[in-house]
Amino acid sequence: MSLASWFRWNEPPNRISQRSPTEMVVETLMMELSWQMKQAEKQQRERENEYRRMKSGVDYGWLVSYPKHSYDISPGERLQLEDMCTKIHPSYCGPVILRFRQVVAEYEPEAQEVSRLFRSVLQEAAEKIKEEEEAKKLARQWNTKNRTSLSLTTFKSRSRISPFISDIKTISEDVERGTQPNRRVWSMPEFRNTK
Question: Where does the sequence pass through the membrane (predicted)?
């Protein structure tokens, strides 16, 4: 291996690193859609061949040449689906693909129906993401409210322990009433020198 080819193989893929996570999610999900559409076409051809074979009793499938990928979605629909894909958080990309594959396996759609199923899976995921974000928002509000009420509770309990209004007489109260203050008694014991 030459030094130039070694550098070419070991240099970091700049194209990947320059894309944002959202762009990577859109590309991954759209590639999955394209692959599922090709698989649906393939299965549709196999079903048609099986039907012809059963009907005629002879298999002419080896004579027929099919285009590799004949069905494609319209540019407008593609843009709509890509826009929906941008709403999917990267952490949901894998679960969305798994759910899409599950739905396709369950319904065994024809090629033109695959994009409709894909759209429904994206809508379902977007709604779930929105619900989870709202739940997190409510939890944050609840935690903030609890902290506030907890601090008020603590304040109220402190006021019960040492209330603002008390029976302890102060000099300022006596001055306000115009009376002579009582002689203060110190609580500290006297130490006498006894011999």
Answer: none
Q: How many structural domains does the chain have?
A: 1
Which residues are within 8 A (CB) of 100 and not within 5 positions of it... i.e. 6 or more apart? 32, 33, 36, 117, 118, 121
Distance CA 116, CA 128 (A): 19
Quick check: 145 pLDDT over 60?
Answer: yes
> 62 in a domain, yes or no?
yes
Q: Which residues are CB-neighbours of 34 under 8 A, at least 6 positions away?
A: none
Q: What type of residue sits at position 116?
A: R
Q: Is residue 103 part of a domain?
A: yes
Banded model confidence at residue 50, pLDDT cuts 50, 70, 90: confident
Per-residue pLDDT of 15-38, as tens digits, reads 555 789 999 999 999 999 999 999
Residue 140 tokens, joined: 């944050």
How big is the CA angle at 105 (ends 103 and 107), to the nearest 5 degrees?
Answer: 65
Q: How large is the C-alpha radius of gyration of the chain? A: 39
Residue span of the structural domain in which 35 resides: 19-143
The Cα–Cα gap between 28 and 21 comes to 10
